[in-house]
Amino acid sequence: MNTKKHLFQLRPLALFAGMLASLTTSSLLAQNAVPGFIEAETFNAMSGVQTEICSEGGLNVSYIDTGDWMEYAINPVAAGAYTVDLRVACPSSGGTVRFMSGSTELGTLTIPVTGGWHTWTTISSTLNLAAGNQTIRLDVVSGGWNLNWIRFMDSRASPESPWDNASGSGNWNTSDT
Ligand code: MG
Predict the structure, then answer these.
(1) How many angstroms does the Cα of residue 149 sit away from the middle of ligand 1?
(2) Spatial separation of the C-alpha atoms in residues 146 and 40, rounded to whole Å
């Protein structure tokens, strides 16, 4: 039997196995574009929460208790500061949520009292995100509120006008090219 020939037949199999492995670790996990909009109920993983019919349409995450968490796969287009908006409802006493990326704490938001489980308001903060695929986790520091959606907007400084003079500032500019 020709050993060399058999090795050649194994090579395509190994390549295929490698492709499958990279698929399962990256692209099969839906990555939310950032900037972008994420329905709270589309978490990739969670602990302790449930979903329910939302008064604003679709679903929201509910039964959010202290110690619960939700995870989302995101893919920021670039590193930098992003405005994060949360659509929340909280009948009484308020709450707190902490954003984590791996073991890195990104920031903490206070959930205000809105007066009802489906009395919605949008709260905003700024988070610094690394570029590329990552999982963010919303750790519920203090529960008792509902979450309908999460929105990330680019809050980095606007680039210079392409019409102004070259300044050597590092920002894009036609006369810099
Ligand atoms: Mg929703």
Answers:
(1) 5
(2) 10
- Choose among 92, 93, 140: nearest CA to 116: 92
Residue 172 has pLDDT above 60, yes or no: no
- Residues, the chain, total? 177
Distance 100 CA to ligand 1 centre (A): 21
Is the pTM for the entire model greater than 0.85? no
Burial of 145 (0-12, 13-18, 19+ CB in 10 A): buried
Rounded CA-CA distance 122/112 in Å is: 10
Alpha carbon distance 146, 94 (integer Å): 11
Work out the pLDDT band at 164, boundaries 50, 70, 90: very low
Q: Kindly give the distance from the C-alpha atom of residue 88 to the centroid of ligand 1, in angstroms, as a whole number.
A: 10
Contacts of 154 (CB under 8 A, 6+ apart): 35, 77, 80, 82, 83
Using DSSP's 3-state secondary structure scheme, residue 141 falls into strand
